[in-house]
Amino acid sequence: xxxxxxxxxxxxxxxxxxxxxxxxxxxxxxxxxxxxxxxxxxxxxxxxxxxxxxxxxxxxxxxxxxxxxxxxxxxxxxxxxxxxxxxxxxxxxxxxxxxxxxxxxxxxxxxxxxxxxxxxxxxxxxxxxxxxxxxxxxxxxxxxxxxxxxxxxxxxxxxxxxxxxxxxxxxxxxxxxxxxxxxxxxxxxxxxxxxxxxxxxxxxxxxxxxxxxxxxxxxxxxxxxxxxxxxxxxxxxxxxxxxxxxxxxxxxxxxxxxxxxxxxxxxxxxxxxxxxxxxxxxxxxxxxxxxxxxxxxxxxxxxxxxxxxxxxxxxxxxxxxxxxxxxxxxxxxxxxxxxxxxxxxxxxxxxxxxxxxxxxxxxxxxxxxxxxxxxxxxxxxxxxxxxxxxxxxxxxxxxxxxxxxxxxxxxxxxxxxxxxxxxxxxxxxxxxxxxxxxxxxxxxxxxxxxxxxxxxxxxxxxxxxxxxxxxxxxxxxxxxxxxxxxxxxxxxxxxxxxxxxxxxxxxxxxxxxxxxxxxxxxxxxxxxxxxxxxxxxxxxxxxxxxxxxxxxxxxxxxxxxxxxxxxxx
Length: 569
Description:
- With 569 residues, the chain is mainly β.
- The strands form ten sheets. Strands 1, 2, 3, 4, 5, 6, 7 and 8 form an eight-stranded mixed β-sheet that branches.
- About 3% of the residues have low confidence.
């Protein structure tokens, strides 16, 4: 059971007392501290003896991140009021709240909100959740919240997170083989400003291994949910996961954010709008104009030319019954959007949005073709006239062929070149799977003179080692990356914990090396970075045998011990 303990850090008559400086305002914080019986440790009340409110933002003179205001006050049983005034007026400030226990200089509790506007002679109220710094905080879930694996999640425009589907059961077939099933239609929304999970209407179809993408089109904010499968196999020999192609889905549905409802995507004639192929574990990416690119989704590493074709969903396609207003749909590209390889089991990440309002995406891995390890998709300026854009293979020396890597954008170089961390994954060589690679790679993309070249710096990823079916997330500033969970071998048992990458040193570390609790190993989970910089971890499994034990599913907040408490440092 999870409880919510309330701190109130308020501004008491600050401006009325005449203590405000010209050109300044004040910050008032309402912070909810999440505590749970699944954790070790006491709630903040009676433990935290002081709190610090830190406001950081861009210095008007240097344009570098600086501390704009900083206040600390003791907390006692009789008072929990903290006043923080004389905060410079400005937009896009970051408010960080830290809670300290007696005798310690490292915070035990953490909260953060970005994009806080401070107005002259006014108090800006900020609502946030406090989580355990460097550790886990369990989120309260409904009693019937199941164990989930290979569900999907996506962050909405207001910072909430939509979670859908996933497998909920596993059947023992003998010889260490399990059939994952019980695909769910359930959907939930997590509100990070309140620390609350709400169950909403169900999806039209049960799905697991599906892909979701948020589309913020004005007047029709929605989430597209593509494909998935209703069953797959976990084996304790060779590669542990196998898609059941006959159970993969070619349908997609739409979540309407305004009404919190799901509807199957339809064509103008009322029939379902379907993808060219069933796609499970596909990759999707949203372009600048809210077009969505869809690749992969076939069995790995099966050589199937049907998956050498990508698809595009566009908000201006598929007019309504009157033929006047577009409702969105898959474009008829007449087989024109060809990839150079299938990229089943690949990773996709945004490369850039150009000044012409076009997008370019990077697709890494998931291929058996040595010259197509990395492809760049460039959107066409004539897309609405029927042009589909193009994929181009880019040779990257030193980067092996990888299935299921994690690819994360990190901070650009001093010259403004884009960089990406590629970590984990498995190789397929000479008709055999090769266990996870222990290295990682830092890719630098140089698009000088409109010619893309990509260099790869090989990194020693120890003590993290190889992993796959893990999740990765880079920090808001791009100077840190976190890798969570996954398999380390083909046993079908998840053994990978947490790993941190520091761009400044190009070094990896683990929580135990920092004196912090280890991450609970799992695979098949989802990870989303929230508006407070913490990570929301949903579901996952250690092994398939425990998926049907009837226990309540996990929903956790992870606040990495490498997360900066002072963004100006």
